[in-house]
Each structure stands twice: as C-alpha cells, then as structure tokens.
Amino acid sequence: MKLLLINPNTSSPMTHAIAQGAKAVAAPTTEIVAVQPSFGPLSIEGHYDEAFAAAGVAEQLRLAQESGANPAPDAVVIACFGDPGLEAAREITRAPVLGIAEAGFHAASMLATGFSVVTTMTRTCIIAERLVQRYGFEHQCRGVHGTDIAVLDLEDAGSTVIDQIEQTAREALSRDRSGAIVLGCAGMTTLCQTLTERLGVPVIDGVAVAVKFAEALAALGLGTSKHGDYATPLPKVYTGWASPFGWPKR
Amino acid sequence: MKLLLINPNTSSPMTHAIAQGAKAVAAPTTEIVAVQPSFGPLSIEGHYDEAFAAAGVAEQLRLAQESGANPAPDAVVIACFGDPGLEAAREITRAPVLGIAEAGFHAASMLATGFSVVTTMTRTCIIAERLVQRYGFEHQCRGVHGTDIAVLDLEDAGSTVIDQIEQTAREALSRDRSGAIVLGCAGMTTLCQTLTERLGVPVIDGVAVAVKFAEALAALGLGTSKHGDYATPLPKVYTGWASPFGWPKR
Amino acid sequence: MKLLLINPNTSSPMTHAIAQGAKAVAAPTTEIVAVQPSFGPLSIEGHYDEAFAAAGVAEQLRLAQESGANPAPDAVVIACFGDPGLEAAREITRAPVLGIAEAGFHAASMLATGFSVVTTMTRTCIIAERLVQRYGFEHQCRGVHGTDIAVLDLEDAGSTVIDQIEQTAREALSRDRSGAIVLGCAGMTTLCQTLTERLGVPVIDGVAVAVKFAEALAALGLGTSKHGDYATPLPKVYTGWASPFGWPKR
Amino acid sequence: MKLLLINPNTSSPMTHAIAQGAKAVAAPTTEIVAVQPSFGPLSIEGHYDEAFAAAGVAEQLRLAQESGANPAPDAVVIACFGDPGLEAAREITRAPVLGIAEAGFHAASMLATGFSVVTTMTRTCIIAERLVQRYGFEHQCRGVHGTDIAVLDLEDAGSTVIDQIEQTAREALSRDRSGAIVLGCAGMTTLCQTLTERLGVPVIDGVAVAVKFAEALAALGLGTSKHGDYATPLPKVYTGWASPFGWPKR
Amino acid sequence: MKLLLINPNTSSPMTHAIAQGAKAVAAPTTEIVAVQPSFGPLSIEGHYDEAFAAAGVAEQLRLAQESGANPAPDAVVIACFGDPGLEAAREITRAPVLGIAEAGFHAASMLATGFSVVTTMTRTCIIAERLVQRYGFEHQCRGVHGTDIAVLDLEDAGSTVIDQIEQTAREALSRDRSGAIVLGCAGMTTLCQTLTERLGVPVIDGVAVAVKFAEALAALGLGTSKHGDYATPLPKVYTGWASPFGWPKR
Amino acid sequence: MKLLLINPNTSSPMTHAIAQGAKAVAAPTTEIVAVQPSFGPLSIEGHYDEAFAAAGVAEQLRLAQESGANPAPDAVVIACFGDPGLEAAREITRAPVLGIAEAGFHAASMLATGFSVVTTMTRTCIIAERLVQRYGFEHQCRGVHGTDIAVLDLEDAGSTVIDQIEQTAREALSRDRSGAIVLGCAGMTTLCQTLTERLGVPVIDGVAVAVKFAEALAALGLGTSKHGDYATPLPKVYTGWASPFGWPKR
C-alpha cells in the first residue's frame, strides 16, 4: 500500500526525519511517500502558522490524488500535532486520513485511564486542548504541558532538550496522575525510544501510531465516508494561486 | 474607527453585498473597509474550501496591518459563518476580531433561551455544530438546519429561496422549541429584514451583530489579548507564494 | 435610546457610581436611567441576598415598563455580577436585557482563549461558577477567584484594595494561563482603568460591556424574543406587598 | 422531628393539598408544618413568578427560624418544581433543605436508567431543563414535556386533566425510552397514585420523595454544610419591606 | 421491611462491621440481612477485584430472591464504594437497589455545593471518578483523594489511620473548596462519627445514607422500573459453576 | 505474535465464528487463540449477563497469563460489544487490551464526523450509550439503535435478519445524519461484508478493527501502562470457586 505522509511545515530536514520515523515502523508492504507543502511556515507554532499549513496539506493531497501517473494514496497521515487540514483532506479522498494528535490520543486512551501531553511552546497548548475537546478525550487527557522548546530546536535535539522533556513528562505523570505520555510534536519522533526507556510508561509518538492505525484501516478496506459531511467537494471555481485547486463540474 | 470586513471567499458581488449590509448598520463614525482574499474559492461550502479561505483571511489582515500608508484596522470582522482564520487573525492584531458565527451565537443567547441556525448546504451543518461546541453554546443552540441552497444562489435570492428559508426556520422554531433564528451564511444578510417581518422572532444576521459588537469592544478600548495564546507569532521564515507572510526577527 | 440600568442592591452610592461608569461609556444618544429596588440588601454577597435582589429587579423593571408618562426602556442592564432577576426581566419586556456577568463572559471570550474572574467574597465564587456553567463558558473561564474584599469596601477603594485585586489577578493570569480578567462585581467599575494599565491585558468591566452590547442590540432592533420561554407572563393574581406586580387578564 | 414544608406560591388550597400529600407519607414522628409566603403569585408559571416566590421562600424560612417560641425546623422542603429559593434557604439554616425537583430527579435516577418529566405549561420546561443541567442529570433525564395545563387547573383535576397527563407520560416513556416519570408540579401530588396504577412504571411525586429524603438526612444528623458556600449570610442591612430580613452584626 | 445488605467482598469481619453500621441507623421496623458472596476477593481494591465482586453481588441477590422460604428483600444496598453489580442487581429485582457511592454522592449534593471523596488506595480513585461521571456529579464532586490505606487495615483502624484520613479530608476541604466529605469505602463506616466531630462538616457514610434512602423509596412503594433497560433478564442458559444462575423460560 | 481473543459468552459456535472473522483479517504473523469462559451466559443481553461475563473474561486472561507452557499473549481482544471485563483485564497484563465497542467507536470516529450503532436487543442500547459516554464519543455517536434480534439468532442469520439490520442502518444514517455504521454485536461479524456492499458507507465490525488496532499497538511495543490505575493487582486472597484467581504476595 502507498501511505502519503504529509509534513504540514516546509522544513525539509523535519520532513526527512518524520519519514525515517514512519519507515521504521511501517509494514514491509507499505510504501511511505513523504511530502511537504510548496509554501508556508518552516515550523508551526501557532494559529497563524496553522492557517497556511492547512492549505498546504490540502495542496499536497490534491496533487497526490490528481497526479495521473502515480496511483492515489491508500492512506494519508498528517504529521503535525495540530492536525491542520485534517477535515479538508478527508473531503478530497476515499482513503483513511489520520492526524497525529488524533492518533496519539486514541492510542493513549487504549493504554491508560489518563494521559498527559508534552509539547513544545506553551502558547500551542491551546491548540492541543481544543483538539482534545473536539475529539472527546477530555476525561482521558489530564493535562497538556509546554516545554517552550522551539520546534526547530528539536531537529538536532541535544541531551539538554531530552532532559527537559523528560523532566516535564515526569512532573506531568505525577501531577496529572497519568499513565502515559503523548508527544505533542512530530519533531519529537526521534526522542520516543529514549523517553520510553527513561520514563517506564507508554510514550506515544503520534507519527508511529498514525502510520500503524492507517495501515490497519486500509487493510480492512475502510476509508473516509463519502456519505454526508465528508462528501467530495462541490464543483467550484478557485482563483489566484489556488486556481488549480478548484473543483471541476462533473 | 476603521473596521476591516473580510469576506473569506472570492466572490466580489458577495463582498459588495456584505459591505452594504455592514454599512447599513455601522455607526456614522465607522469606516467599513471590505476586502476578499487574492486567491481561493468563490464560495465556502465545506472543510476543503475553508482551508484555503482561512489562509486568505490571514493574507488580507496581514496586508491591512502592514500597509504603511493606511492606519491599521481598529476592529476586524470575518464574514463567513465558519469563522475561517479567526484564531490566526487574532494572533496578528491587537484589534478585536469577530467571526459572524461567533457573534450570531452570542447575540442569540442574549435574546432567547434557545435558538436555531438555518444555513445553506446540509453538509456544512457539521461546521456550525463544531463551532457551537467550541464556543460553548450547546445548551442554547437547539438545532442547525440545512436548506441545501447553494451559497451563490443567495446572491440574487428570489422569492422561492426566501420562502424555503422561511419554511425551514418555522419548522426549526417549533421542532427545536427555539425563540430566535441565526442566519447561517453571510450571503443571507440581505434576507434578514424580510425574514424578521415574516417570522416575528429575532432573526440574527451575524454580519450586523459582529459589526456592532466590534464597534462596542473598540469603543471601550478592548482588543485581542496579547498575553499568552494570542500573542504575536514567533519570528519565522515562510516559503513559496507565502514568503511575504513570514514573521521577521525583531 | 433610553437604557434602564438596574442596580439590584439598595446602596445609593453604588447606584450612583455604577451610573457614572455607564454614562462614561454610553453613546451620546443613550440616556442612562439608573434605579435600585425599593427594598432588599445593601450589598449582594450570597444566595440569600440574591433572592431579594432578584425580586427587586423585577419590581424596578415592572415600574419602568408601567409608568405611563415615561417611555419604556429600549434596553436594560442588570448591574450585579450574579445577574439576579435576569430571566424574570426578560419575560416582562421586549427590550434586550443583559446581565453584567453574562456580558463580561461574552466579551472576554471574544478577546482571549481563556479568562479568569476576580471577585469579592470567596463564598460568592459558586454564584459566578454556576453562571459560567449556565451560559456555557466552562472552557473559556479558567478560574473564579475571591479576594474576600466586602462589596461595600469597594465604594471608597483605597490603594490597598486595588493592590490586593491586582495581586489576585496576576496570580490568576499565570496559574489559569488566562489572557483576560473579568471583574466580578459592579462595584469594581471604578477600578477598571487602573487595573488595565497595571496588568497589560484586557480587564473587563461587565457594566461597560453590558451597556455597549445593549446599545448594539437595540440599534439593530433586536430585543428579547417573545416566542416561547420568554413570552409575557400569564395573567395572574399577586398578593401582599407584591399585589401591584401581578399580571392582569388581557 | 419538625419538617417545614414551604409552598412558594400563595394558593392556600394548594398549600393545603400539598400538606395532605406530605402528611400521607411522613413518618408518624414527623410533624409537617406547611406555610406559604405572605406575598407573591397565586401560581408559579415562569421566571417572573419565580423571582417573587424565591423571596417568599426566604421570608418563610427566616420567620420559622426566628420565631423564638417554636423550635426551628429539623428539615425543610420547598414544594415547587422550580426549586425557587433553594440556595437562599440553605444559607440560613443548618437543617437539610430539599427542593422537589431536585428530590424527584435524585429518586428517579435511582430507579431507572432514564426518566422523563411531565409538567404543566410548556413555557416552564426551560426551568426544569436548567435544573437538570445544574444538578447534573442530563444523561438520566431524557425529556421534559409540557401539557399546557395551568397549575391552578390541577387543584380540582377532573378526569380530562388526568387523561391528558397520562397520555403525555405514555408518549414520553416510549419516545424518550424512559423507565420512570417525574411529575413536574407540586400540584400533581394528588394524581400520583392514579398515574402509577395506569402507567405501570415508577411515577415520582417530588413532594413525597423530598419529605422522605429530608427525614432520612435528618435522622442521620446530616444538615446543610456551613463550611463555605452555604455559610450563614454576612451581617447586612436590608431596606423597605424587607428590612426585618437583614442580618444583624454578631 | 427486609433490607438485603450485600458486602461484595468476602471479609466476614467487614460484613459484620457494615451490618452493625447499618443496624445502628435503620428504622426499628427494618430488618437488616447482611450477606457476602460465596467466592471472590477478601477486599476490593481495583478493577480486577471488582469483576469478581460484581458477579458475587448478582449471586447473592439471586439467592435471596429465589429462596422460597424467606420473603424477597424489600430493598437492597450494595456496600462497596465502586457499586459493583449495581446494574445487574437492578435487573433481577423490583425492589429499589442502591450503591453506597451513588447514595453518598446524592446525599452530599443535597448538603453542599461541592464535596470531596476520601478513599483508600489512590489506584482506586479512577473507579470513583468514573462513577462521578456516570452518575452526573462532575460539578459537585470537586476531588477524589486516596490515602493509600489498605481496605483491610480499616478493620481495626487505630488512631494513626483516623488521623491520616482526617488530614487528607482537611486538605481536600480547603484545596477543593468543598463543604462536605464522602467516605470512599464501606470499611470507613465506623470512623464516620469521629471524623464528623473532628471536621465540623457533613461527613457522609455511604452505607448509612444508602440504608435510609432505600427505606425512603421502599416506604413510598417505589422500586426499580421494569420498563425497558432494567427489565427482568431474558430466559437464558448459564454454564459451569454459574449454571444455577441462568434464567428459565417462562 | 499471539493474540488472545476472548468471547465473553459461552456459546462455542459464536466463539468459533468470531475466531474465523478474526483470522480472516489478522496478519499472517498473528496467531489467533480464541477462548470462552468456563462458566456464564450463552449470550450477553443485559447487565446481569455482563456481570458474569466480566468475571469470565478475567478468568480466561488469568489462565492464559499463568499457563507456564504457552507464552503469554502479546495482545488481547474482548469480543463482546459491552466490553465486559476490559478494565480488569488491563490490570493483569502488560499487553494491549481492546474491547470491540471501544475499537469500533475509535475507528468510526476516524472515518466520519458522526456514526450510528446498530445493535441487537433495544434493552442493551443503554450499555452502548454508557460506553459512548465513558470513552468520550458523545459528539461522534449520533444514535444507538436496537433491532430486537436476539444475539443467538445471529448465528445462522437468514436474509430476514440481514434485511432488518440493513433497514435499521439505513434509517439511522438518514435520521442521525451519520456517515458510518458500527455493528453493535460480535455476532454480526459475519454480516459486515454484505452490509458494506448494500449500504455504501463504512460498516465497522468491532472484532476486525480491534484485531488490527491490537496488532498495531503490539507492533510498536506499546502495552497497557503499569503506572497507576492499571498497575498489577495487590496481593490478595480469593475464596470459593475463585480461590485460584487471587493474587499471591510477591
């Protein structure tokens, strides 16, 4: 199967790192195709960045669907913890689409009665908290904690960064009475193994679980419902740079 | 005061119509400046359309903020019922920013114990329902009802369209036991007066209340908090067509 | 327009102070008529006080509606943070009626993702918390904090009182991760300016926003729905001192 | 023990009828003392009526507490389905205080997974729905249904009235998938027996369960907490007709 | 009346202690019949223990219902704070069935605006928290606190144990701003009196209130609804040791 | 990997059918070991049946963990839509444990904005509704619908049964405005394919998704957290038939 892994920001090193993480857990039969938008922020640390990133996710999935040559993806993963463009993506494909925050929350709730999220900038906690509410995990998610580490500083995360995240996670486990940690940024993929060993509780990397859940759904032939809310967009004219992304009359 | 009225879609007739509606209710001292994105969908009828529209809202507010010549807006209204780009907009201005769905819900909850929303395509009800949940109006909003009238068909709404909306509104008032109707599309602005006369209950046009609430907040010197979640974006490089929209180091 | 400003307690100095605050923000065309009940508590600091105050609000609005000479009010504001008699008032007028807690919560949720309330006696926090739940602001209101300053001590609030409120507000902003402060008592109106300068975040005086929101709704011709739950009371005999407040057969 | 039964409206026949109902279920050792306010509405069918009734409840409990001669009540029941003045009453006594809506909801949730409320005027459904939310019974209460029978028409309820209530109850049981009916008005006390026989499910009269629960709590020496939110009111001057109801300095 | 008191664990000393507590508060006309399962855990301190205990509760009630000689119980109380087997029990009897957690929460919410639970092992807090959610007391229950005292250590609770519970309760009252304490284990029955005297707030023993509420409901002829969700089980074959507990065809 | 598939009821044909369904979707490297309790109900159609089934699930997992010969399972699936014994099972293993209701809800919420559940006896709807609340899917699950088909009648489901389920599903999709159907009984596994073809929306068989999700979690080395709420049970003596299931001192 072909799994389209969309990194919503425009940092090639991060796209590469996320792709490595995805390939490390994907089934041998799964081809990971990692892409990033042709425009937008180098990292996503707020609502403003997300507005551009969501459009970038739509752009990339649209291109992957259209490209006559390649087959369309069998599954899609959006690798940014704010799940930007998740709903938009679901409208334009029959494949299952998973966001990594969503996948991380689902997985954590299967492993512990309560979990805590450890993320980057404190100002982005509100984004995760809104998703927790939207998805219905308010009873399971007992806390969202910022470390105020910048996303791009995760790319070459030294021991200090890891120690800082470990420290925040330990405090969260005890203060929140949580049993698992969800890593609140795709850029933390590379730290999952180390943190798991250090913390002794399930540490969940949304990228990894999103890939496995997407494989699971695709294997069962389950995809995004085209009945109702996620039906294919209505025919529509788009203008400006986005004109290629309109929807033709059928 | 200068009120920036952003129509998130790219239909100039609709931008014009909304501007007329806004000017009709604005205070004499309020200058309404109506804009629309330089790109994106002609109308917004789903999540995919919204993803582009949100970026368009960010683009327009950013341009309005930057343009050295003009003064920055004293208040901002986003005139699409999905409130696309609302959070993004709040990050990049100190002015108050209101979405018309948000404003409509707030107003309705001040006038009746329960209200119903009458909108366009049924497939977009989920967008309004999510906002209702997000903003906390689940006890006041007793129903969201689609008419399956296309947004652009509202531009020259004939009597059939009005009758259809009236009919849906009447059914909603009785089935939902509601006391007020919130119009679920900026394109319905022009129908508000007629529907009010016909229905005999408060019929709320989000554009009108958003304009008045924005004037109210601005008059009190109240604006978007820059403390915490809505703080100005972090310095960041943007790429591709969006490169002008990055945030310089300070 | 004529705006009836009802102070639910019987402290004339407070009625005067609140009226001053309202006049300072009202539009030139708005006539502020400030009244207080003919009976009841000098200040409202609990459920027992509120029970009498709510009846007092009903008394005053009824008198203002009836008085043949004067025109009936075009808008009504109830200036006590518990919003006593709000529902009762809405039944007996077609004008919009706003409580200051309600107005403060609505305004704060338009300016920040989360706000905190700073009020007087800790024992009254439960009243604000119940309103937060009733109105649907449980996700936006991140904390209600008592200062244990008596309401009447606000009348001639010295620097100690202000410092104490500022201190509580600072702690709330950081502990609650809030972006705005809602002042939890009409008696704090006079402190709003100072606290805004000191705190550097939006500080919301419910009286001011209630006046502006009431003006906004009235300007649009929007009033309390008479369809259903807020319909005019049924004809009814009242006895005792309340006999003038019954409702005649029509 | 002495149980103060307060009928918040001023209909002596209803006070008498409710007292009969209470005495019929009270323990032999329980003395039922039934009172009604010295002022206010003959029946309670909306928020406006309730505002006066709540003050009337406070008046009567205060008088019962003060009257040196008689001992203070050991328990208090407020016999109107809107539970007017419940919180106020709790502040001024150490005895347990129960509202009949509250008691009815608690009892129903112990007997069935879901219950429906059948009440009088449809316009009062909102009052019961608000209490359901306030008390936390939103998952158990599956519907609140109005019969549009006036409260005073229950006093000499003929077979038509009973048939109408039975019919509404039957529809509620099936449409709401409920297992029990809560009667939504103290005036329905006299119909409970008949409806129980006809419907074959638990039919709950709030007056009866409130009396028994109050006896239960009093028997265990449990009363309203004076720690925090329900502490005795602060010393305060009251004015006008309410001046006797202020609270002296201690 | 005959009240079946089921201790879901298999500790005879605890069954005896609970029975003593129940008899101390029961009406003279109430016969307390205390039983315990023929199998299962000596104490219940987790989900695994509860799974066996719930079956044990079903076993004991079934035996009590069947035993031709004795009359069936008029009311049932399940004396373990997790309310194990509560739903199962309700299916197989027409008598009212009360769990002690349920009864404790209901009672506390009648006496204070907020209460705190003090229980045994911290690992069991999640069980109480789930019940709080299930029953709808999330606004009233402001905290569930573990003492990490083992259930069986309560049997001969020395002063250290009592002091520890008192200390946890005091902290809860202040940190949670609560007005009452609910004891989170049937084994704490014997400590209720002492803690009440020491804390000066209502301290609620679920066993005592469950007994009194059960008496109250039974006295009114109210029992578990057999309409719908709690209807008598369908005829069914059971196998293995449970074969006597199947349900014969009728 | 070894996946323990526990059928909580004692119907061998159903255990066989479920095992077939699981094997049909499992990875080649996954060994499905299907078991059923040594005691209890032939089918689970209510709370009483569930009480025995939960203990049966605990029995079987305990046996599978203990049996020195075989390796312990790498993942566990509980194949009854009420998820009986789910929490108990998580306490006694480090492997991931999934219930089929839980898995079905998670999967559905990844594929549609809203889903409906179609189950067997209407009386069991409450069980699914409680799980929906417990797991946090109240916004996604738009309806739970009974067909009143007995569980055992699914074993040799003729066309009538399928037609009936299809009919209920069609009505649910339209009335609930849902985009996916979750089959509310493990016995419906065999009907999933047919219903998918007929309905044209995702039809989710909890057994299949639970198997794939369990494989996904196990593949990532993720298992039930032993930190806190799901920690291994405390040492404890069990009595009667359950004595082998106590927990030895370590």
TrEMBL record, chains A, B, C, D, E, F:
One of its GO terms (molecular function) is amino-acid racemase activity. It catalyses: D-5-benzylhydantoin = L-5-benzylhydantoin; a D-5-monosubstituted hydantoin = a L-5-monosubstituted hydantoin; D-5-isobutylhydantoin = L-5-isobutylhydantoin. Its EC number is 5.1.99.5. Gene3D superfamilies: 3.40.50.12500. Belongs to the HyuE racemase family. This is Hydantoin racemase.
